[in-house]
Amino acid sequence: MSALSRRDFLAVTTAATAASVLPAGSAALAAAPAATSQVPSAYRYKVGDAEVTVVSDGIRTIPLGDTFVRNQPREAVNGALKAAYLPENQVTINFNVLLVNTGGKLIVIDTGNGPAQGTVGLTQGTLKAIGVDPKSVDAVVISHFHGDHINGLVTAEGTPAYPNAQVMVPEAEWAFWMDDGNMSRAPDAQKGAFQNARRVFKPFEGKVERFGWDKEIITGLTPVATNGHTPGHTSFRLASGDKSLFVQADVTNIPALFLRNPGWHVMFDMDPAKAEETRRRVYDMVSADRTLVAGFHFPFPAAAHVEKTGATYNYVPVSWLPVLL
Question: How far apart are CA 41 and CA 145, in angstroms?
Answer without folding.
Answer: 24
